[in-house]
Amino acid sequence: MMNSLRAANAGAVEARALTVVRGDRTVLSDLGFTVEPGRITGLLGPSGCGKSTLMRAVVGTQAKVSGTLDVLGRPAGHPSLRARVGYVTQAPSVYTDLTVRQNLDYFAAVLRPGRGHRAAREEAVTRAIGDVDLTRRADALAGTLSGGQLSRVSLAVALLGTPELLVLDEPTVGLDPVLRRDLWNLFHSLAADRGTTILVSSHVMDEAERCHRLLLMREGGILADDTPDALRTRTGSATVEEAFLRLVEEAVTTEAVTTEAAPATAAHRAAADEVTPAGQETTR
Ligand SMILES: Nc1ncnc2c1ncn2[C@@H]1O[C@H](COP(=O)(O)OP(=O)(O)OP(=O)(O)O)[C@@H](O)[C@H]1O
């Protein structure tokens, strides 16, 4: 991957002409964006638009990436980023036959091996379990936890190394409203108190309102890169969901004019159907 000049005051993530091919398809095409440090950036868009692929590229686990993608001033995937970037995938990566604390102990030992780091590891584990509000379940077998609790164990693992950048792929799927609120409060305190940069994907539009900035995606491209307020104002919309639908409508109309393809209304309906309305979640 090409990497050019890296300014000291660059964003936490800088993408230029970022393209990703999966199989025989170009699933991300010529993306350019900056993720501001110490802020929460939401990655939103319909299922299949490329959110997970973009996150995989940022954490360096995606093949066939071209263009420029810098993370914390280094090329994405650089070995020095391992301890500086936390990543939580959609599927919880937790050992079900270990307790919550044993899971954390194990991953802490991988991150910081050696007897000399024992006290620091114990402190990090206790802090991470507290961060995700699982202190009372610390000695429960992971296999006996609910789906939402398991997701929080995964998040605790990602918090172990006190990452500067936290990449979260739909962390609130399957969580009840109270847990979702608590998690979003945690994200905000991580950004405000620890200066953690958070890149979080969601297809639930009401979560967009909780982000400092939004990258709205559609069909492998960036439809908008702005604050929720600016998006609402620019499109004359009451909600980010409405703003997103207006932007889709504009994009579809432009495409229809240039390609004289299928009627815009049908394409718009298809795109809009893929967006989950505020407060609802899809099951998969
Ligand atoms: N191995 C693969 N080979 C070819 N195409 C793939 C492969 N994996 C994913 N894709 C395609 O890449 C596109 C982007 O997928 P991705 O998982 O990044 O989307 P997403 O926005 O995260 O979706 P979701 O919200 O459902 O998780 C989709 O159209 C998907 O079909």
TrEMBL record:
<protein>
    <submittedName>
        <fullName>ABC transporter ATP-binding protein</fullName>
    </submittedName>
</protein>
<keyword id="KW-0547">Nucleotide-binding</keyword>
<feature type="compositionally biased region" description="Low complexity">
    <location>
        <begin position="259"/>
        <end position="276"/>
    </location>
</feature>
<feature type="domain" description="ABC transporter">
    <location>
        <begin position="13"/>
        <end position="244"/>
    </location>
</feature>
<keyword id="KW-0067">ATP-binding</keyword>
<dbReference type="InterPro" id="IPR003439">
    <property type="entry name" value="ABC_transporter-like_ATP-bd"/>
</dbReference>
<dbReference type="GO" id="GO:0005524">
    <property type="term" value="F:ATP binding"/>
</dbReference>
<dbReference type="InterPro" id="IPR003593">
    <property type="entry name" value="AAA+_ATPase"/>
</dbReference>
<dbReference type="InterPro" id="IPR027417">
    <property type="entry name" value="P-loop_NTPase"/>
</dbReference>
<dbReference type="InterPro" id="IPR017871">
    <property type="entry name" value="ABC_transporter-like_CS"/>
</dbReference>
<dbReference type="Pfam" id="PF00005">
    <property type="entry name" value="ABC_tran"/>
</dbReference>
<feature type="region of interest" description="Disordered">
    <location>
        <begin position="259"/>
        <end position="284"/>
    </location>
</feature>
